[in-house]
UniProtKB/TrEMBL annotation:
Name this protein carries in UniProt: Aspartate carbamoyltransferase
Ranges of residues in domain Aspartate/ornithine carbamoyltransferase Asp/Orn-binding: 170-316
InterPro entries assigned to the protein according to its UniProt record, in alphabetical order: Asp/Orn_carbamoyltranf_P-bd, Asp/Orn_carbamoylTrfase, Asp/Orn_carbamoylTrfase_sf, Asp_carbamoyltransf, Asp_carbamoyltransf_Asp/Orn-bd
Subunit structure: Heterododecamer (2C3:3R2) of six catalytic PyrB chains organized as two trimers (C3), and six regulatory PyrI chains organized as three dimers (R2).
Keywords: Pyrimidine biosynthesis, Transferase
Record Gene3D superfamilies: Aspartate/ornithine carbamoyltransferase (3.40.50.1370)
Transferase recorded as keyword: yes
Species whose genome carries this gene: Bifidobacterium castoris
GO biological process, one term: amino acid metabolic process
Pathway assigned in UniProt: Pyrimidine metabolism; UMP biosynthesis via de novo pathway; (S)-dihydroorotate from bicarbonate: step 2/3
């Protein structure tokens, strides 16, 4: 098996290789150094909002969302606006020419003439890769079916780092719909690259982690997993608990969804069994899986994740466009 690559997050090494022109379909498209640089850039952006406000002047982002979204689309768009760029796109395919039978390929060949970077969300696994192959500008996967959601993982990594000062040497529980939850697949894939993570996979037997994701853990010498179905039994061992929604839109059968949707509900009583500094993450939207009373607990990190999502998308958009953040290089070399 592979050993995880070092994060060395506080060491100021040489700049990471340029990300200009890179499409991001999975975070495997970026090196660990590039991911580390994005984390550093997001932290810099957070405290230098005015300095970076014209980084992407004259740039245009297209958001092509063939599936519903609140956070991902709005944060991709806000990120570009806050960097001085502009945004076009559609939210819901019903008003786009896909309804007339246009292919993803033709849409991307068209939109490449209009914009400098594209974010695409689509219900089909692999759609973002098809889009990137057709486009002549960088394409960022904003979620392709039950497959991957790499920019959510960037938000998750930023949140883990802000809570623990690192993203590994941790026991991380992932709970809920591990079959269809694309955020889980992206996060596991990337954490395996950092290495030294113990995964506790908590799901009903019908919603277990896909084999291709488990293979990734098996191939990593310093990562391991256990599969369990009872959250209360394991919550006390966890450094972080990543809750997920049961993905109604990916079920073939309504009865199965209704039977499984409320399997796990994190409430104050369950949280009382957890470590005092455990972090609760959730990509959102939530339905019932985290009780509202948990929001006031300092362990709740899910709205921090939302904020980190916007900052990480600012870092990624400027990086794939090759637009330098004013002052960042000097700041890092200090
Ligand atoms: N986390 C996430 O992808 O949220 P949206 O579906 O609202 O974009």
């Amino acid at each position: 098996g592979q050993k995880g690559e070092s994060l060395a997050s506080e060491a100021h090494n040489a700049p990471a290789p340029s990300m200009v022109g890179t499409s991001v379909i999975t975070l495997d498209d970026l090196s660990i150094e590039q991911i580390r640089e994005l984390l550093d850039k997001a932290r810099y952006i957070d405290t230098h909002r005015k300095e970076v406000a014209h980084t992407c002047d004259g740039r245009v982002l297209a958001t092509l969302f063939y599936e519903p979204s609140t956070r991902t689309r709005l944060s991709f768009e806000t990120a570009m606006l806050r960097l001085g760029g502009k945004v076009i796109g559609f939210a819901g395919a019903q008003l786009a020419s896909v309804t007339k039978g246009e292919s993803i390929s033709d849409t991307l060949k068209t939109v490449s003439n209009y914009v400098d970077v594209v974010a695409i969300r689509h219900p089909k696994e692999g759609a973002a890769l098809v889009a990137a192959d057709a486009a002549s500008v960088p394409v960022i996967n904003a979620g392709d079916g039950g497959h991957m959601h790499p920019t959510q993982t960037l938000a998750d990594l930023a949140t883990l780092r802000s809570r623990f000062g690192r993203v590994n040497h941790l026991t991380i529980g992932l709970c809920g719909d591990l079959t269809f939850g694309r955020t889980v697949h992206s996060l596991i894939e990337t954490l395996c690259r950092f290495g030294d993570v113990r995964f506790v996979l908590i799901s009903p037997k019908e919603l277990r982690t896909p084999q291709y994701v488990l293979n990734r853990i098996n191939a990593t010498e310093d990562c391991s997993y256990v599969e369990v179905s009872d959250l209360s039994e394991v919550i006390g061992d966890l450094d972080a608990l990543y809750m997920t929604r049961v993905q109604k839109e990916r079920f073939f059968n309504e009865d199965d969804y209704l039977r499984l949707r409320d399997t796990y509900i994190l409430d104050a009583a369950k949280l009382a069994l957890a470590k005092p500094d455990m972090a609760v993450l959730h990509p959102l939207p939530r339905v019932n899986e985290i009780a509202k009373e948990v929001d006031d607990d300092p362990r709740a990190a899910y709205f921090e994740q939302v904020r980190n999502g916007m900052l990480m998308r600012m870092a990624l958009e400027s990086s794939v466009l090759g637009d330098e953040l004013p002052g960042f290089a000097d700041h890092e070399n200090k």
